[in-house]
Amino acid sequence: MELFCSPFQLSAIPIEDGELYLLAQLELPLSNEMMLARLIAETAWRAETITVWGKQHRQPRLTAWHGEAAYTYSGLTLAPLPLTPLMLTIRTAVEQATSRRFNSVLLNYYRDGRDSMGMHSDDEPELGLEPAIASVSFGETRTFILKHRHSKRTLKVPLASGSLLLMAGATQSNWLHGINKSSRPLNPRVNLTFRNIS
Q: What is the H or E stretch that residue 62 is in?
Protein backbone atom coordinates (compact mmCIF):
# COMPACT_ATOMS: atom_id res chain seq x y z
CA MET A 1 0.00 0.00 0.00
CA GLU A 2 1.36 3.43 -0.98
CA LEU A 3 1.21 5.71 2.06
CA PHE A 4 1.85 9.03 0.33
CA CYS A 5 1.57 10.51 -3.14
CA SER A 6 4.13 13.27 -2.74
CA PRO A 7 7.06 13.87 -0.38
CA PHE A 8 5.40 17.15 0.67
CA GLN A 9 1.78 15.95 0.93
CA LEU A 10 0.22 14.93 4.25
CA SER A 11 -1.53 11.61 3.56
CA ALA A 12 -3.88 9.51 5.67
CA ILE A 13 -2.88 6.08 6.99
CA PRO A 14 -6.12 4.08 7.41
CA ILE A 15 -6.63 2.97 11.03
CA GLU A 16 -9.71 2.02 13.03
CA ASP A 17 -10.85 4.27 15.86
CA GLY A 18 -8.46 7.12 15.15
CA GLU A 19 -6.79 9.43 12.67
CA LEU A 20 -3.20 9.03 11.47
CA TYR A 21 -1.39 11.07 8.80
CA LEU A 22 2.14 10.90 7.42
CA LEU A 23 4.31 13.40 5.57
CA ALA A 24 7.54 12.01 4.14
CA GLN A 25 9.47 15.28 4.35
CA LEU A 26 8.56 18.40 6.29
CA GLU A 27 9.54 21.54 4.37
CA LEU A 28 12.28 23.26 6.36
CA PRO A 29 14.96 25.91 5.64
CA LEU A 30 17.80 23.61 6.76
CA SER A 31 18.74 20.04 5.86
CA ASN A 32 17.64 17.16 8.06
CA GLU A 33 21.28 16.58 9.02
CA MET A 34 21.69 20.20 10.08
CA MET A 35 18.46 20.07 12.07
CA LEU A 36 19.63 16.96 13.93
CA ALA A 37 23.07 18.40 14.73
CA ARG A 38 21.66 21.70 16.00
CA LEU A 39 18.92 20.08 18.09
CA ILE A 40 21.43 17.79 19.79
CA ALA A 41 23.85 20.66 20.43
CA GLU A 42 21.39 23.42 21.38
CA THR A 43 18.88 21.55 23.58
CA ALA A 44 19.20 21.32 27.38
CA TRP A 45 18.69 17.56 27.56
CA ARG A 46 17.64 15.93 30.83
CA ALA A 47 17.65 12.35 32.14
CA GLU A 48 14.28 12.09 33.91
CA THR A 49 12.82 9.49 36.30
CA ILE A 50 9.18 8.47 35.87
CA THR A 51 6.77 6.35 37.95
CA VAL A 52 5.15 3.34 36.26
CA TRP A 53 2.89 0.99 38.25
CA GLY A 54 4.22 2.49 41.48
CA LYS A 55 7.88 1.96 40.61
CA GLN A 56 10.42 4.57 39.58
CA HIS A 57 12.38 4.10 36.38
CA ARG A 58 15.01 6.19 34.61
CA GLN A 59 13.68 7.01 31.13
CA PRO A 60 15.72 5.18 28.44
CA ARG A 61 16.34 8.39 26.48
CA LEU A 62 16.97 12.08 27.13
CA THR A 63 14.14 14.64 27.06
CA ALA A 64 13.37 18.35 27.06
CA TRP A 65 10.07 20.23 27.47
CA HIS A 66 9.52 23.64 25.85
CA GLY A 67 6.38 25.75 25.52
CA GLU A 68 3.76 27.74 27.35
CA ALA A 69 2.68 25.46 30.20
CA ALA A 70 3.80 22.70 32.56
CA TYR A 71 3.12 19.09 31.56
CA THR A 72 2.60 16.08 33.83
CA TYR A 73 2.84 12.40 32.91
CA SER A 74 3.82 9.21 34.77
CA GLY A 75 4.25 11.13 38.03
CA LEU A 76 6.65 13.61 36.44
CA THR A 77 5.87 17.33 36.11
CA LEU A 78 7.89 19.24 33.53
CA ALA A 79 8.31 22.99 33.86
CA PRO A 80 8.53 24.56 30.40
CA LEU A 81 11.55 26.24 28.89
CA PRO A 82 10.92 28.85 26.16
CA LEU A 83 10.75 27.63 22.59
CA THR A 84 14.09 28.29 20.89
CA PRO A 85 14.28 30.00 17.48
CA LEU A 86 14.98 26.61 15.86
CA MET A 87 11.98 25.02 17.58
CA LEU A 88 9.81 27.95 16.48
CA THR A 89 10.95 27.40 12.88
CA ILE A 90 10.01 23.73 13.07
CA ARG A 91 6.69 24.52 14.76
CA THR A 92 5.78 26.99 12.00
CA ALA A 93 6.43 24.31 9.36
CA VAL A 94 4.37 21.77 11.34
CA GLU A 95 1.44 24.15 11.76
CA GLN A 96 1.47 24.96 8.06
CA ALA A 97 1.54 21.27 7.12
CA THR A 98 -1.21 20.22 9.55
CA SER A 99 -3.40 23.37 9.73
CA ARG A 100 -3.35 23.00 13.52
CA ARG A 101 -1.91 25.12 16.33
CA PHE A 102 0.61 23.86 18.89
CA ASN A 103 1.95 25.70 21.94
CA SER A 104 4.36 23.14 23.42
CA VAL A 105 6.82 20.45 22.39
CA LEU A 106 8.36 17.40 24.06
CA LEU A 107 11.75 16.50 22.60
CA ASN A 108 13.18 12.97 22.86
CA TYR A 109 16.82 12.18 22.13
CA TYR A 110 17.46 8.53 21.26
CA ARG A 111 21.24 8.29 21.52
CA ASP A 112 21.49 4.77 20.08
CA GLY A 113 19.49 1.56 19.67
CA ARG A 114 19.34 1.00 23.42
CA ASP A 115 17.15 4.09 23.89
CA SER A 116 13.42 3.49 23.53
CA MET A 117 9.88 4.61 24.35
CA GLY A 118 7.49 2.30 26.22
CA MET A 119 3.96 1.72 24.95
CA HIS A 120 1.66 4.51 26.15
CA SER A 121 -1.01 7.01 25.10
CA ASP A 122 -0.76 10.79 25.26
CA ASP A 123 -4.08 11.10 27.08
CA GLU A 124 -3.30 13.48 29.95
CA PRO A 125 -6.23 15.82 30.85
CA GLU A 126 -4.38 19.02 29.82
CA LEU A 127 -4.20 17.71 26.23
CA GLY A 128 -8.01 17.63 25.85
CA LEU A 129 -10.39 14.85 24.78
CA GLU A 130 -9.10 14.29 21.23
CA PRO A 131 -5.61 15.77 21.14
CA ALA A 132 -3.59 16.30 18.00
CA ILE A 133 0.05 15.22 18.42
CA ALA A 134 2.48 16.11 15.63
CA SER A 135 5.69 14.08 15.69
CA VAL A 136 8.75 15.22 13.70
CA SER A 137 11.84 13.01 13.44
CA PHE A 138 15.46 13.73 12.55
CA GLY A 139 18.29 11.21 12.29
CA GLU A 140 18.08 7.42 12.35
CA THR A 141 14.89 5.82 11.08
CA ARG A 142 13.05 4.11 13.94
CA THR A 143 9.87 2.02 13.75
CA PHE A 144 6.87 3.64 15.43
CA ILE A 145 4.58 0.92 16.80
CA LEU A 146 0.85 1.41 17.43
CA LYS A 147 -1.27 -1.19 19.23
CA HIS A 148 -5.06 -1.00 19.54
CA ARG A 149 -6.21 -1.15 23.16
CA HIS A 150 -9.08 -3.59 22.44
CA SER A 151 -8.58 -5.40 19.14
CA LYS A 152 -4.80 -5.65 19.82
CA ARG A 153 -4.18 -4.89 16.14
CA THR A 154 -0.62 -3.67 15.60
CA LEU A 155 0.59 -1.13 13.05
CA LYS A 156 4.25 -0.34 12.37
CA VAL A 157 5.30 2.93 10.72
CA PRO A 158 8.98 3.61 9.92
CA LEU A 159 9.71 7.26 10.74
CA ALA A 160 12.54 8.50 8.54
CA SER A 161 14.56 11.68 9.02
CA GLY A 162 12.48 14.75 8.20
CA SER A 163 9.14 12.94 8.43
CA LEU A 164 6.02 14.24 10.16
CA LEU A 165 3.43 11.94 11.75
CA LEU A 166 0.14 13.43 12.96
CA MET A 167 -2.06 11.54 15.43
CA ALA A 168 -5.53 13.05 15.88
CA GLY A 169 -9.17 12.28 16.63
CA ALA A 170 -9.68 9.35 19.01
CA THR A 171 -6.22 7.87 18.42
CA GLN A 172 -4.99 8.50 21.99
CA SER A 173 -8.16 6.96 23.48
CA ASN A 174 -7.93 3.77 21.44
CA TRP A 175 -4.26 3.20 20.62
CA LEU A 176 -0.98 2.82 22.48
CA HIS A 177 2.28 3.78 20.78
CA GLY A 178 5.99 3.36 21.40
CA ILE A 179 9.46 2.60 20.00
CA ASN A 180 11.32 -0.62 20.83
CA LYS A 181 14.97 -1.04 21.70
CA SER A 182 17.20 -2.41 18.96
CA SER A 183 19.91 -5.04 19.30
CA ARG A 184 21.80 -3.60 16.34
CA PRO A 185 23.84 -0.38 16.46
CA LEU A 186 21.81 2.69 15.52
CA ASN A 187 22.74 6.32 14.98
CA PRO A 188 21.19 9.14 17.05
CA ARG A 189 17.63 10.31 16.51
CA VAL A 190 15.79 13.35 17.83
CA ASN A 191 11.99 13.40 17.85
CA LEU A 192 9.82 16.44 18.57
CA THR A 193 6.19 15.87 19.55
CA PHE A 194 4.22 19.08 19.27
CA ARG A 195 1.02 19.36 21.28
CA ASN A 196 -1.44 21.97 22.54
CA ILE A 197 -1.71 22.36 26.31
CA SER A 198 -4.95 23.98 27.46
A: strand 62-67
Q: In Å, how far are 1, 7, 167 from 27, measured between CA atoms? A: 24, 9, 19
- Among 87, 149, 147, 83, smallest CA distance to 117 is for 147
- Cα-based angle 108, 181, 73 (whole degrees, multiple of 5): 40
Over range 178-195, report the average pLDDT: 96
What separation, in Å, do the N-terminal and C-terminal C-alpha atoms of the chain show? Answer: 37
What span, in angstroms and rounded, lies between the C-alpha atoms of 198 and 125? 9
DSSP symbols for 21-54 = EEES----SS-HHHHHHHHHHHS--B--EEEETT
Q: Please classify residue 194 by burial: count the beta carbons closer than 10 Å to its beta carbon, then call 0-12 exposed, 13-18 middle and 19+ buried.
A: buried
- Alpha helices of the chain — where are they, by DSSP H? 32-42, 85-98, 171-174
User: What per-residue confidence (pLDDT) applies to 135?
Assistant: 98
- Give yes or no for residue 78 having a pLDDT over 60: yes
CB neighbours of 13 closer than 8 A, spacing ≥ 6? 3, 20, 21, 22, 155, 157
Average pLDDT, the chain: 91
Cα distances (Å, whole numbers) of residue 36 to 2, 86, 105, 181, 194: 27, 11, 16, 20, 16
